[in-house]
Structures are given as C-alpha cells and as structure tokens.
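Reviewer comment 2.1 asked that we show a complete input and output for one of the modelled complexes. We chose the zinc ion case, as it is the one discussed in the main text.
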Amino acid sequence: MLSNEANRASTPAFDAVVPGLSVLRDVFANLYYAFPQDQPQGPWVLIDAGLPGSADKIKKHAEELFGANTPPAAIVLTHGHFDHVGALDGLLASWPDVPVYAHTLELPYLTGRSSFPPPDPTVGGGMMAYLSFAYPKHPYDFGTRVQALPADGSVPGLPGWRWVHTPGHTFGHVSFFREHDKVLVAGDAFTTVFAESGTATYTQKQEVHGPPAYFTPDWNAARASMELLARLEPEVAATGHGIPMHGTELRRQLAAFLPRFDELARPKVGRYAHQPATADADGVRSVPPPLVNHWVKGLAVAGLALTAVALAMAGNGKKDKRKGKKARSTSKGKADDSYRAWYRDSPAPQGASGPDWQSRRPGPFADQSPHGQDTATSQPSSGTSYAADLRYSDQRSRKIETQYP
Ligand SMILES: [Zn+2]
Ligand SMILES: [Zn+2]
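Response of the prediction step:
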C-alpha cells in the first residue's frame, strides 16, 4: 500500500493510502476520498476536485468505494487552483445538495471576485514550469455553493480531522490533518514529486519538494507553512502532487529539506522569488512586475532589428508586396500549428491518460469564458498595473486574468 520507493508504473492511479483515505491521481494532480476508518461505506468527504473534465472519473471511483448514488457529505478544498477545482462544476451539477468549503481567504478566487496572481514560468525547473504561462488563473465562480471552513478548525463531515491554514502557495491554502494517526493531506503546501519537471511528473519519483514553484506567490509564507506541517511530524503525507510518502523516511526528508528551503524550493530567479504578491479578503492587492530574461530581451531586440531590415528590403520591391503578405500569413499559420503540436505532444502529462489529458489540457484552448469580452475594458493602462489600488473585487464573475501582465 504505502511505499517510499514507488513510481507511476508501480502505483495505480486510484489507490488506498491508509484506512479512511484513498487517492485518485488525476493525470498529475491528486484528489482524495476521506471517510471514517470504521465505516468504509461512508459517509465520506471529497478533498479537492481534480482537473477540468474529470468529474465522471471522480464519480466512478466514488461509486466503487461507496456505492451508487452516494454523494459526499461535503467537498473540502485545499485551494482553488485549476488542477484542484477543475471538475467541481460537473460534480456540483450531479450533487446539487453537497456543500463546498474552503478557507475564507480563498473565497475571492472561488466566487468570481479575483484572479490568482499570474503563474511564473521564469522559475525554471522543467516543462511543467515552462508551460505554466498557459495555466488558468481566472477565478471560478461557484457562488453560494462554496462557503468558509468553520473557524474552529473542524472539517465538515470528517470528525477527527482538522484544517490548518498553510498560506504561501495560495493565500487561503489549507492542509488537512487526522490527528490520532497523524495523516496529513497537504495539498500543494509541499509535494512529494519535483513538480516543475515534466520528467519527474511523468515518472512520479517520490521525493519531498516545496510547493509547485510556478504557482507560488509568497515564498516566506510557503516556508513557514511547510515548517508548520513538519512540526506536526506526519506519519503519512498525501500531497496534491506526487505519490504519498510515510514514516521515518518522510520525516527525515522533511527535516533535511527545510533548513535548505531557500536553496531547494525558492526559485533563484522568479517574479515572486524575493517579493511576494499580496492579497486580502477581497483578493489580490498587488503583484510584483514580471521578469524578462535578459537573453529574451536581447533576442527580442535582435528580432526587431532583423524584421525592420527585412521590411525595408521587402518595401523596395513593390510588385512583391502582395506575395510577401501572403507568405507572412502562411508562415503565421504554420507557427500556430507547430505551437499547438508542441503543446499537444509535450511529454509531461502523458501516460495511460495521455489522450484524455489532451482533450482537457489547460491553457488558451480550454480557457474560454463567456465574459471574455470584458477583458478589453477591464485592462489597466500599462505602467500602473502593479499598483495596489488596482482591484477588481467589484466586478464579480468577470474574467479578469488580463489585469496583470
Ligand atoms: Zn496549486
Ligand atoms: Zn496543484
């Protein structure tokens, strides 16, 4: 059941972690089915809600565990990133009476009031990080279906568990802890896989790591949260990414990792590496400016210079004008196609579920909103976009991810 030497090949996607907790690895993100240890038939609670398009898969495995037509007593969310709430819409449609709970500081991103801070592809580390520019960051709007977790630390539907605020990866990130046997569901507060790497994400090689760097906007808070969780001395760590780890080896790796957190987890270079985004109960208040790599800058300048030369030369031949225009338009089409092919064929999220992933991959192709037309009018003028007063909390439900560069 539990191993610290497991990998994707040796571990079924749907598996028991410990009595009262089962995991479903949804391509690269985990969600959990939690239930009383002495009542394997439920009642039960769903912890996180997977990637977009996986509602049927989540329900199918729920039926295997608890029988047909047995909705959970509640759905609780570690945080609101797309790989943890992607299937929530579909689940809520099937389970019209099931309440959803998240930390009060996560509610702006789940009730349409604020985008997450933009992901940071400049952190490096591998394909999962490089692709993060395309990960959805717009708010979901589950309206009154989602509410704040109880202030007393209890977890609705899960006696014996408590929630712990573990901000850093997101502002309202929480972890869940079963106290009597020290079972921890850590969300993305830390991971047991090198989540930035496409290869590691594919193999699922077990290893304690920090939160996924490309989506973490406050590294001091993230370090404090990981330290807090290590102090709980978990017997089992079931994380949002990676195969659950356990026992002495888990605690040894946590203890070895934390003193080197800034070296191992905090990006050397990155938009949030040394300056956090800030937020309050209404959502994001400020984000640091994006980093532009000097090489990218240099290449862009060189590209512009070459383009100018090419245009000047093309301008000399009037009769070639129409032909040139056609050629440019053709080459643009080819570039688009090759981009899509590269995206589709990128090795990271493949495996048994490869084709399934392709049909619901995140990014510009899946990230459509009926409110897209609002983005043009809600964009701030350039140069002022980092100011703390740029808030969109009054624009409920709007797709506002373009508010930050
Ligand atoms: Zn996350
Ligand atoms: Zn995640």
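Residues 79, 81, 169, 188, 212, 215 surround zinc ion (ligand 1) (CB under 6 Å). We note this here for comparison with the apo prediction described in Section 3.2.
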